[in-house]
Amino acid sequence: MERKETHASFGGVQEVWRHNAVSLGVKANFAIYLPPQAKTEKVPVLYWLSGLTCTEQNFIGKAGAQRVAAELGVAIVAPDTSPRGVEVADDDAYDLGQGAGFYINATQEPWAAHYRMYDYVVTELPALIEANFPVTQQRGIAGHSMGGFGAIMIALRNPGRYRSVSAFSPIVAPTQVPWGEKAFSAYLGPDRASWAAYDPLELVRTATERLPVLIDQGLADQFLKEQLRPQLFQAAAQNAGQELILNLRPDYDHSYYFIASFIADHLRHFVSKLG
């Protein structure tokens, strides 16, 4: 691993590291915030998954999470949103290819060679973090938009692995909205039956663990009606007996101004589930 950045922040340290990501077949960046408590003890860690077009930089520079993470004694890990490099398949559109990994394992060419963000986020990255940083195996997962989808999907697929799950403006119905249909068609192929393994609406029906899901959704979000459609997950959760905390926030849009306004609630939600 190579440390690319280090910055003192609220008594802790914000770092960015680069390493050989076996799952992705290329080098990848991740950001980690270590609170001041990590100087003397191991701390729990929240994994943050960002949205379309983002890198590891967006969250650490815009969300304002470090102050509350320092108060609560929580580490935050933010990976990139896709594999990157000249050898990695890409697309001219913002919503496919580099910057749009969707946190799934691609099975179709030319994507299958590198687009294995599911394996990277669920298995490889936590193993790396827990082996090299002062963190416990008490994990939470959260994210925004595409990353909000990733967080909910990953938590539902991995019972016992996370203590909490939360999301801002998540794509909760990827098989029924343009963003998800485009990505799943490319990465997984035309057989829609294979999409169900990553569809929160399907996963919530058969989940064996019922972590409360916290969602914050802005009502001024320009993507709300076409791409996000939280009412679909609300109905699926109700039918499945899944606890859902859905906060509909008047006037808030899809931006990091929204995330910065309520990120403290999501960090406290994680800490409340540590027991």
| CATH class categorisation | Alpha Beta
How do the strands of the widest beta sheet line up side by side?
1-2-3-5-4-6-7-8-9
Amino-to-carboxy terminus distance: 33 Å
Spans with pLDDT under 50 lasting ≥5 residues? Answer: none
CATH topology: Rossmann fold
The overall pLDDT, averaged over residues, is: 98
What is the H-and-E element order? EEEEHHEHEHEHHEHHEH
Total number of helices: 9
Question: CATH homologous superfamily name?
Answer: Alpha/Beta hydrolase fold, catalytic domain
Radius of gyration: 17 Å
- Please describe the biggest sheet, giving its number of strands, its sense, and whether it closes into a barrel: 9 strands, mixed
Q: How many β-strand runs?
A: 9
CATH architecture: 3-Layer(aba) Sandwich
| Shape type | globular
